[in-house]
């Protein structure tokens, strides 16, 4: 008999994990809980979350409370008496009363090697910090953020070519596969959790506007490139050159040249700004304010013509 599952998730990462549960005959997804649909883009069009779209395609019940605690939806979910509660990039804390309703286990698929990178943006921060390796942890859910006992982990190498988009896609597959391998062992009592060492814990807080700002006067070339990788394709790191805001989606480290914070290289195909350590950041894919993403060559054929070597970025 299939184990019943209530799934909590919102993003693309969540969608991949949910798809694995739906396709596995060992599990019966009886409900999907997602964040409420939010307005997106300049036109503020309200879009369904990724997990909601998948759930509706499979005719699964969908719950979207603004806040689970004390909601009518929570009472309905508890009444389901599911074998498993599974979260993956959900975006809300699960109340303890709901966690305790799971007959077998309430578990989370977290995109880091815990206790490293507890929090909302572990994949982004691994890239921002220039890590060479990351992974996925399956852990018991507790009231404290990502602090439950770890049941299983799997590691993945971060390639130099990875950005947040590509690493999210890779880790979603790793997380899905690890979850589907771990849950049967929990059902039989074979899998056990190991406490985390809280002294080794680091945080991965939400991405905010201040983090998204590139400061060539304070950040090294490596730090700038890692920040770009960690925030690409969304939400995107940005800088201001002569007061024009430009989102930078791909970049690489060049040679040492020019004055810190200034446009130091401009040719038909290269556009580089010198960072705090004296090395140049070569821009590859970018998006000027109000425009679509473009290659640096396309930018240089258009708006890039207005900038000359020596143009300054705004110090933040």
UniProtKB/TrEMBL annotation:
<comment type="similarity">
    <text>Belongs to the Fmt family.</text>
</comment>
<dbReference type="Pfam" id="PF00551">
    <property type="entry name" value="Formyl_trans_N"/>
</dbReference>
<dbReference type="InterPro" id="IPR036477">
    <property type="entry name" value="Formyl_transf_N_sf"/>
</dbReference>
<dbReference type="GO" id="GO:0004479">
    <property type="term" value="F:methionyl-tRNA formyltransferase activity"/>
</dbReference>
<dbReference type="InterPro" id="IPR011034">
    <property type="entry name" value="Formyl_transferase-like_C_sf"/>
</dbReference>
<dbReference type="InterPro" id="IPR005794">
    <property type="entry name" value="Fmt"/>
</dbReference>
<feature type="binding site">
    <location>
        <begin position="112"/>
        <end position="115"/>
    </location>
    <ligand>
        <name>(6S)-5,6,7,8-tetrahydrofolate</name>
    </ligand>
</feature>
<dbReference type="InterPro" id="IPR044135">
    <property type="entry name" value="Met-tRNA-FMT_C"/>
</dbReference>
<dbReference type="InterPro" id="IPR001555">
    <property type="entry name" value="GART_AS"/>
</dbReference>
<keyword id="KW-0648">Protein biosynthesis</keyword>
<dbReference type="Pfam" id="PF02911">
    <property type="entry name" value="Formyl_trans_C"/>
</dbReference>
<feature type="domain" description="Formyl transferase C-terminal">
    <location>
        <begin position="206"/>
        <end position="303"/>
    </location>
</feature>
<keyword id="KW-0808">Transferase</keyword>
<protein>
    <recommendedName>
        <fullName>Methionyl-tRNA formyltransferase</fullName>
        <ecNumber>2.1.2.9</ecNumber>
    </recommendedName>
</protein>
<feature type="domain" description="Formyl transferase N-terminal">
    <location>
        <begin position="5"/>
        <end position="181"/>
    </location>
</feature>
<dbReference type="GO" id="GO:0005829">
    <property type="term" value="C:cytosol"/>
</dbReference>
<dbReference type="InterPro" id="IPR005793">
    <property type="entry name" value="Formyl_trans_C"/>
</dbReference>
<dbReference type="InterPro" id="IPR041711">
    <property type="entry name" value="Met-tRNA-FMT_N"/>
</dbReference>
<comment type="function">
    <text>Attaches a formyl group to the free amino group of methionyl-tRNA(fMet). The formyl group appears to play a dual role in the initiator identity of N-formylmethionyl-tRNA by promoting its recognition by IF2 and preventing the misappropriation of this tRNA by the elongation apparatus.</text>
</comment>
<dbReference type="InterPro" id="IPR002376">
    <property type="entry name" value="Formyl_transf_N"/>
</dbReference>
